Inverse folding.
């Protein structure tokens, strides 16, 4: 079962999500929070797999709540579910550690699919979030390369990861096994001092490491 916590300050939204998710045989809603403070407390008490997190909430917003959750419980994934699509919300949410970013007009079946894919370790971004990241890449394209702490092959894996590819797709692109990819990703997280794929991708964008090592 995928254990889900819903965090949203609108009762109607929480009820709607609860009603639909309860129909899924592999998903269990373990709790509801009406603000970021409650969300953090419930994550500590309930240890869900995934938090469906609203962005704008009283007392503590979704970005601050996500930062606190990822700092203390890095294995808990956060899927932002919001009405905001501007970069002032999208990029801070991703930088906070969100594994996914979806808008509230998402089709119910697509939301469930996003939850399942995040549970499998993927990062799921609405096209608007992806475009914001691409825009960030363009803005920082001319930044000078830094000396990377990664090996050439790790740089190649990181470059593929920033394109949103799964471990299987990375393995196919680089002609290695999925096990090898997992090992490289673990090393990347350790060396870059990041907690997940999203933060690693942001590091690559910020430091102009999105093209790989250039070594075949």
């Amino acid at each position: 079962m995928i254990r889900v916590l819903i965090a949203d300050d609108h009762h109607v939204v929480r009820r709607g999500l609860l009603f639909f998710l309860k129909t899924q045989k592999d998903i269990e809603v373990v709790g509801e929070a009406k603000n970021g403070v409650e969300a953090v407390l419930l994550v500590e008490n309930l240890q869900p797999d995934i938090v469906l997190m609203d962005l704008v909430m009283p007392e503590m917003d979704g970005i601050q709540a996500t930062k606190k959750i990822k700092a203390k419980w890095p294995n808990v994934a956060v899927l932002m579910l919001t009405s905001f699509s501007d970069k002032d919300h999208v990029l801070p949410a991703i930088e906070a550690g969100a594994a996914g970013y979806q808008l509230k007009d998402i089709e119910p079946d697509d939301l469930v699919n996003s939850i399942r894919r995040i549970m499998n370790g993927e990062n799921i971004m609405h096209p608007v979030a992806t475009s914001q990241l691409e825009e960030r890449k363009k803005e920082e394209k001319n930044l000078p390369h830094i000396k990377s702490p990664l090996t050439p092959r790790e740089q190649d894996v990181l470059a593929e990861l920033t394109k949103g590819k799964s471990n299987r797709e990375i393995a196919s692109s680089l002609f290695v096994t999925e096990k090898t990819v997992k090992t490289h990703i673990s090393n990347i997280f350790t060396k870059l001092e990041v907690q997940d794929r999203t933060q690693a991708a942001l590091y690559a964008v910020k430091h102009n490491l999105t093209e790989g090592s250039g070594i075949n």
About this structure: The first strand starts at residue 2 and ends at 7. The mean pLDDT is 87. The domain at 2-135 is CATH 3.40.50.2300 (Rossmann fold).
